[in-house]
Design goal:
Blueprint: H1 12-27, H2 31-47
């Protein structure tokens, strides 16, 4: 009897946290501040339509 390995999905929140923590280490800015900025930039990017 072998257990099947469970595949874990990477969430957007995990990606934001990973990018923010990496950037925080490099820049000295807090993780929360960078994470907030990433989310704000994402919201602004969604508001921009693509040219046709």
């Amino acid at each position: 009897m072998h257990k099947q390995p469970t595949s874990s999905q990477v969430t957007k929140a995990q990606i934001y946290r990973a990018v923010a923590s990496s950037t925080a280490i490099e820049t000295g800015v807090s993780v929360q501040k960078i994470e907030q900025q990433l989310k704000q930039n994402q919201a602004q990017a969604k508001a921009v339509g693509l040219a046709r």
